[in-house]
């Protein structure tokens, strides 16, 4: 079945930091892809993230985010990094249950009149541990482990058979 929705984890999937909820204001912008908080914690967006997100949007895919972070921190970081505009639905929670977050994304899309089945979804996360409950509770979501199943973001386009 055709993938219509691509859902990303954030930490260690889109950028190199493991927990953006730790970041404290003020945030200093080092460059378009790198920031630093007042305590010297740095975050760098992985190579190819922007071009991959742009290509996914160009191909009319719906982009979601399911991340274990405080919602206000997620929104703040996405805004500072100018990545917010790529995501149609963002679910950021202070708990690790990705299957619940993906359910929320499916429900939000349904509220917008977009019907999506689990087999229409690709979920990309750096931790395979989340996939079991996704499959158990949601069904045949295509789960991809970042850095194991694929080694760079442009490979997402190849998995979806999109030209990059």
UniProtKB/TrEMBL annotation:
Keyword Iron: no
Top-level taxon: Archaea
Keywords: Hydrolase
InterPro entries: HAD-like_sf, HAD_sf, HAD_SF_ppase_IIIC, MDP_1_eu_arc, S-2-haloacid_dehalogenase
GO molecular function terms attached to this record: phosphatase activity
Keyword Hydrolase: yes
Name of this protein: Magnesium-dependent phosphatase-1
